[in-house]
Amino acid sequence: MKANIITIPGDGIGPEVVAEAVRLLDIIANKFGHEFKYSEQLMGGCSIDKHGVALTDEALADCKASDAVLLGAVGGPKWDDPNAKVRPEQGILALRKGLGVFANLRPAKPHPALFDSSPLKPEKLKGVDVLVIRELTGGLYFGHKAREKVNGHTRAIDTLEYHDYEVERVVNLAFRLAAGRRKKVSSVDKANILESGRLWRQIASGIAAEHPDITFEHVLVDTAAMRLVNAPASFDVLVTENMFGDILTDEASVLCGSMGMLPSASLGEGGPGLYEPIHGSAPDIAGRGIANPVGTILSAALLLRHSLHLEKEAATVEAAVDSAIADGCRTADLGGKLGTKQMTDEIITRLRA
Length: 353
Known about the structure:
Helix content: 40-55%
Mean pLDDT: 96
CATH superfamily of the largest domain: Isopropylmalate Dehydrogenase
Distance between the termini: 22 Å
CATH topology of the largest domain: Isopropylmalate Dehydrogenase
Number of domains: 2
Shape: globular
């Protein structure tokens, strides 16, 4: 197979972890007889510094024309002025919207060898295999925004808006994916307070009625947050709106011992997918060669699976990561001493075997 992959290293530790994922993808290409070509684009703070915008039209066009996009992370203190009109995060929002990737898939399956790295008791982690599906192109992040003066005070406005079709497509995806897992969908909302939550609940109920073979439940977001720490194994596929999904998936990272372990895939209806670790740019450790590359490497595995439809190759990467973790390979965030490159070396050694 030939594939054109756009890499967006971004800011902070982004370039370090993306470089390791590309190194691993090259090993996969050589092992299985594929040809992966890479083109690099700027996004985030580095794009602001060079072009004055967080994502150029040219960069977005290249991403749209690719087979898949692999992203590191964006942002950092240098661009953190709350009054700035151009911010790094505008790039990721524009990229998601431009690619039409409406569903963000974030799996959280703690490795038994890392149970001690989580603050939760090991017995709470047994059997945990959660897939959070976060709606990605609607809600507060894309609603009307304003800041204005009213009676001598400053008022900020963000609107939480959803159309029926935005809810339908992401909930339908949740049921499709649950059918290949443990056949349970938990729809998370705030229907007791929000009108958008009541629309979400109404639509989710209608779709659930079409899938009698799949167990379905509504869960208020505050209850979902509680259950993620006291009964995480009770979830299979969890689907929710944009902001709730952002918060809950960061919470779910605690189950796996470190945010550096978790990948994500952002998918739409055709077109290239967007793949990135869930962690941020970690400017405090940038350039030191100690960032955990596993979240980005597992994101590359999702890229192989969902955009290139190379299931065997994706499973090979995941098995190599599992083997390295089982053998005690650890970066600093997990209490180990391996650097970014050394951790990748350990994974590649097992992949080649």
